Structures are given as C-alpha cells and as structure tokens.
C-alpha cells in the first residue's frame, strides 16, 4: 500500500514490497495500415525502491540491488524478466508507469498473452486500468499518484 509522508510524497508502507517505475520509449517505423504506424518499444527505463532505500536519492541498495536500469534488446521481454526475477525478501511487486493505461500496459498485456500468462485486468474501453499477474501488480501513475514521475 502507498501512503503520503509528512513531506507530501508517496511512499510504501510495507517492508516486503518492491516499487518499480518504468517508461517505454518507442519507434514508429512499422507500418500497420496505409496511414498508421505501430509504436514499437525500443527502450525501457526502470527505477525501483524498497523500504530500505525509499529515502535514498541515488545508489544501489543492500536489499533490492541495482536501482536504475535500462533494457533495449527486447525491452518488453527484458522488463517482464526483470519484474519476475526471484526476490525472496519481497512478496509483492508494484510496477507503475505514467500513462500505463493507454500506452505502457498494452505492450505488457500483448506479451503476456503471447507467453500464455493469464493476467487479471480491469479495462475501461481500450484503457487498461489495472493488471495483476501472481504477485505483480501494474498500475498507472495518473490514477494513483497526485504528482508526475521524475
Ligand atoms: Zn532498496
């Protein structure tokens, strides 16, 4: 669960939760129809925090490890591998992205379907409001955080 600190920022309350913030960059070289080109992820930036490093601006953490990473070989696959890494100290991973419901989560849902995962999701028209797979929860920052991601 998230809570607001006395400084007004959102922070985790549990000591077994890993919060992951991510953002895909895309290229639009793949033609889908005559005038439409697909957004294809070519890079994903990732930063995470746990209860031990939530107040630390930079650097790695003794519990959750390397806190900033980027993936570019197969960004969606690499992000899912990263999110599902074995981390015995945590029992929940919350992955948050800006505009996840209309953009980032679609890449993850497409890949999840390809690898025959069965995520639980809440849709609102074409927007994915929430997605859950095992101990992984994926959210949109706009829906849950009152400030932009930095
Ligand atoms: Zn940490």
Layout of strands and helices, then pairs:
Layout: E1 2-4, E2 10-12, E3 17-31, E4 37-49, E5 68-71, H1 75-83, E6 92-97, H2 100-114, E7 120-124, E8 127-133, E9 136-140, H3 141-144
Parallel strand pairs: 3-6, 6-9
Antiparallel strand pairs: 1-2, 3-4, 4-5, 7-8, 8-9
Bound molecules: zinc ion.
Describe the 3D structure.
The structure is a single chain. The protein has helices spanning 75-83, 100-114, 141-144, and strands spanning 2-4, 10-12, 17-31, 37-49, 68-71, 92-97, 120-124, 127-133, 136-140. It has 150 residues and is of the alpha+beta class. The chain has one domain: 2-Layer Sandwich (Nucleotidyltransferase, domain 5), CATH 3.30.420. It is globular and about 50 Å long. The protein binds zinc ion (ZN).
Named once each, the bound ligands are: zinc ion
By CATH, the architecture is named: 2-Layer Sandwich
Q: How would a crystallographer describe the biggest sheet? A: 7 strands, mixed
Q: How many strands in all?
A: 9
**Poorly predicted runs of 5 or more residues:** none
> Roughly how much helix do the residues carry, as a percent range?
10-25%
Q: What is the gyration radius calculated from CA atoms?
A: 16 Å
Shape: globular
Q: Kindly, what is the distance between the CA atoms of the first and last residues, rounded to a whole number of angstroms?
A: 20 Å
Q: Mean pLDDT, as a whole number?
A: 85
Structural class of the secondary elements? alpha+beta
Number of helices: 3
CATH class: Alpha Beta
Beta-sheet strand percentage? Answer: 35-45%
In sequence order, what are the helices and strands, one letter per element?
EEEEEHEHEEEH
CATH fold assignment = Nucleotidyltransferase, domain 5
Question: How are the strands ordered across the major sheet?
Answer: 5-4-3-6-9-8-7
- The total number of structural domains is 1
